[in-house]
Amino acid sequence: MSTVPRVEFNRSAVRPVECIKGGWSLIGNKYWLILGMCIIGLMIGSAVPLGILMAPMMCGLFITFFAMRRGEPIEFGTLFKGFEHFGQSVIATLLHAVPITVILVGAYILFYVFFLFAIVAQGGGDPNPGAMMGVFVLYGLFWVVMIFVIMFISIGFMFVYPLIVDRGLPGLEAVKMSFRAAIANFWGLLGLIVLNFLLSIAGLLLCIVGVYFVLPISYSAIAIAYEQVFGLREGPLAPNTPPPPPVFT
């Protein structure tokens, strides 16, 4: 009978700015390779609903980041090593996707319930703008709450794939451990999400397609945050040195 590995984690250990800087340093002169892996991973992952293929693609990315952090060689095919964790990563993904899907479907159902209730409340008379506005305000407040709930769930799942590939945790155990560590590092992870969001906005301002160019930094920053919280299981760590300066020809 297999036992679940014991995993310890640090509290209040995530430093958002250091994660971004460390993520950029990590990918270094392999930026274009990592960018290609991110884009292909997203394309493959989007081909099947509920993240069934996105799960092994994310595992492959974190395998890549951790190999780089240990100074091990990587290649484009490293992305597909995530399929070695296909079953457990899919379990974890479904545990993430199903609650969010239920929330979104429930939100749309409530919208139509509120809308029909407002119509019935008119009693067949002329529409009351105040009542209709009240319905939309309540629905807007409901969505604000739902956004925070979805954000909380997403923060809780932030370490799931790294725990699966680095610590060999089963999907359910990875979810539980990720939530415990995320709650203990909530504000740091929230700050990291805000910084990644700002990077995405900056990418959108660069002719929209620029949003893809920040993906390697955003994902590698999560790998650095994982290391701050859990450390890496085994293997020597490569020095986290800045990337070499660009060469113009």
Task: Please supply descriptive tags for the structure shown above.
single chain; mainly alpha; 249 residues; 68% helix
Question: Can you give a write-up of this model?
Answer:
This protein is mainly alpha-helical. Helix content is 68%, strand content 0%. The chain contains 10 helices and no strands. It has helices spanning 16-27, 31-45, 54-69, 86-121, 129-156, 160-167, 171-184, 186-205, 210-213, 215-230. Helix 1 (16-27) packs across helix 10 and helix 4 runs antiparallel to helix 5 (129-156). The longest helix is centred in the middle third of the chain and has 36 residues, at 86-121. The protein is globular.
Which parts are unreliable, with pLDDT below 50 for 5 consecutive residues or more?
240-249
What separation lies between the terminal Cα atoms?
A: 60 Å
Please describe the biggest sheet, giving its number of strands, its sense, and whether it closes into a barrel.
none
The string of secondary-structure elements, in order, is HHHHHHHHHH
Rounded average pLDDT: 85
Topology, pairings included?
Layout: H1 16-27, H2 31-45, H3 54-69, H4 86-121, H5 129-156, H6 160-167, H7 171-184, H8 186-205, H9 210-213, H10 215-230
